[in-house]
Amino acid sequence: MSTSYQQQHKAGDLHFLKRLNRSAILELVRRTPGLTRADIATQAQLTKATVGAGVQSLLHQGWLREGELQKSSGGRPGRALHLNEERHVLFGAEVGVHGLRLVACALSGRVLESHHEHIVPTTPEATAELLAELLQGLMRAHMSDERRCLGLGVALPGPIAPGKPVLRLAPNLGWRDIRFLDLLRPHLSRLEGTWLMDNEAKAAAFGELYFRTGNIPESLVYVSAGTGIGSGMVEGSHLPLVARGIHGLAGEIGHTVLQPGGLYCHCGNRGCAETLVSGWSIRAALGIAEEEDLIETLLPRLHEPDVQVTLRRAGEALGILLLNLHHTQNPSEIVLGGSLTQLGAPLLDPALDYFKANQSRLLGTTQRVPLRVIQDSTFVAARGAAAQVLASIIHGPNELS
Ligand SMILES: [Zn+2]
To answer: In the sheet that 333-337 helps form, which strands lie side by side, from edge to edge?
Structure first.
């Protein structure tokens, strides 16, 4: 009995090791396209035989493809290895307060197709039905016998319960405790693979780090400035971990209080950052209706004094949030996205000026944290949710097939 058990255990270990090796090989090629088998053996500290067998099976299953012949510093030249972009598709979607954004992605995160649908806020059920209909369009175009679907990631505008697929609250939609994937599933029985959901800023942060190649930061904070304002922090270049907190609230900077006793926020507290810098507070200050597109309405009006004052105040509040993030999270890189970045200098200049002027004060260091503004971040969260699907497969418990 004990021999049989030991043999089984050993076989299990071997199986597990093989799976681990293949994940490690795939990760290396994903992060550094063009590596040869010899490069991988050196970097992963695996034998050439192990790498050879792992690469062979990843080629066979359509995860990798061979490219040009590479010169090597020693030994024989080897074939460059790249992700095979032709055999898999990942779907990502973001449910925003005023829009649905969808992507179909290849393994590298390259967007094969995207779609943005403007919506007026409605019920979770109606939103799920519309999203499913739009996803079916992408599925028809990108799922085939040659291209297998790996799954669907959905980004949502509120905190998600850690370890449970429940949207706890979307304050700007008035949704509470929504199992959004359960609402989608009946409409999408053909969409196979891994399904998951996350907060939109956390998904965006994850994608910004996970799909990066070459020089990868140790940690990254993504700030999403749209109808609301939130952030996501990811850390660790191999499999980035998302900071969540006990209730999923980590990164909810929109509800940090900047003005005690200030205006009421949608969350019920007073003086939250969102009452100063968010799409909804800018709408309220300038009397722009829900049905109108905020950015399209504001862009021709940027010269108007009341618009300038409102955006400058919002920008100053954004600068404070950025500085607070720098001091509380201290990430290697900050990425600022969300629809409000399209408003440009009137909002961004006061924010960036404040951040730059104050970020080094505490330590007196000259080493600055890079802050990158994404002008068009329409699909960043949807793509990030697709990245989370890929990561859960590469690093998950099941065999890569
Ligand atoms: Zn609030």
So the answer is: 241-242, 229-235, 219-225, 333-337, 371-373
Alpha-carbon distance of 227 to 311, in angstroms, equals: 14
Give the span between the Cα atoms of 25 and 52, in whole angstroms: 10
* Ligand 1 centroid distance, CA of 266 (Å): 6
From the CA of 270, how far away is ligand 1's center (Å)?
7
272 CA to centre of ligand 1 in angstroms: 5
Angle at 230 between CA 205 and CA 354, to 5 degrees: 95
Cα 278 to middle of ligand 1, angstroms: 11
Ligand 1 centroid to Cα of residue 124, in Å, is: 21
For ligand 1, the distance from its centroid to the CA atom of residue 258, given in whole angstroms, is: 10
Do residues 396 and 214 touch, judged by C-beta distance below 8 A? Answer: no
Structural domains of the chain sorted by starting position, each given as residue range(s) with its CATH number in brackets: 2-83 (1.10.10.10), 88-205+381-394 (3.30.420.40), 213-377 (3.30.420.40)
Q: What is the pLDDT of residues 215-274, one digit of tens each?
A: 899 999 999 999 999 999 999 977 899 999 999 999 999 999 999 999 999 999 999 999
pLDDT tens, position by position, 300-348? 999 999 999 999 999 999 999 999 999 999 999 999 999 999 999 999 9
Expressed in angstroms and rounded, the spacing between residue 178 Cα and the centre of ligand 1 is 19
Q: How far apart are the first and last CA of the chain?
A: 32
Q: How big is the CA angle at 293 (ends 287 and 294), to the nearest 5 degrees? A: 50
Give the type of residue at 230: G
How far does the centroid of ligand 1 lie from the alpha carbon of residue 389, in Å?
Answer: 30
